[in-house]
Amino acid sequence: MNMPPRLVVNNLQSYFFTRTGLIKAVDDVSFTIAQGETLALVGESGCGKSMTALSLLRLLPEPGRIVGGEISLDGRDLLRLPDVEMRRIRGNDISMIFQEPMTSLNPVLRIGEQIAEVLRLHQGDTKQQALEQAAELLNQVGIADPKRRLRDYPHQLSGGQRQRIMIAIALACDPKLLIADEPTTALDVTIQAQIMDLLLELKQRQQMATLLISHDLGVVAGNADKLAVMYAGQIVESGTVKRVFENPLHPYTQGLLQCIPRMGQQRTLPTIPGQLPDMREQLEGCLFLDRCPGPCSPCGHQVPQIEEIEPDHWVRCWRYSSTGQRG
To answer: Is the pLDDT of residue 314 over 90?
Structure first.
């Protein structure tokens, strides 16, 4: 039986109002995530993945602003909540694991203090209760000798251990939604696998909705239920991981999948020519036009809309559009 959506994002628009022009960092983005489900948001650097995550938390840096759309968590529209209520939701109902734990952890505070602070702030625990719970959280994320590690500072831990600490902090309040932004960046392959296995185990145990942000389709293949491919602030293709991997429709998705190295391959990996468009320009038509190997006649002057091509498989491309001229 399909679970009802825990998170619903509809037509989200997050723009940056800079001196040099308007940047549509997130432009008409929609997706849903059910309880116990993982949606992977993929695409190259600069395509809007992290800005989408920060929009969910209402933490866009200046001069960014959410200008339209809906973000609903269990039926509550987060964009309509007062700031004081949104602060209660961050770290409690929604938690985020950031890319680089060394810059996310406070270097002058012991690990135990940093985890306990979250529990005291959101759960109302006493200092002693919070430290006991912090030790249990470290045990859950696979940190050996957790009570001793509570007294350590971040620089005394390895990269993999610091990432596990970030996971423990994120899970301290049993969030309804976990956002994992490139959680295995800068870790070696063995540690990457351990971290992703841990996240999968914890998600299944606690039935969280999870947004996994990654540029690594290999990580996505084994750890996500659904996939949304992002390009220049827009979702260009989405669906179940199985459906998109087996039948990629958008030329950008096809290019990303061709770039995955495979065991036993002895050939040079292909690349996607060109680069992301300058988002300060007011572009007409398809944003992927200059990099597309086979553009259609409307691509240069009409923006394609995202359409459902088959059940649970959506694409933003004139090749598959039910409206307008093709070919």
So the answer is: yes
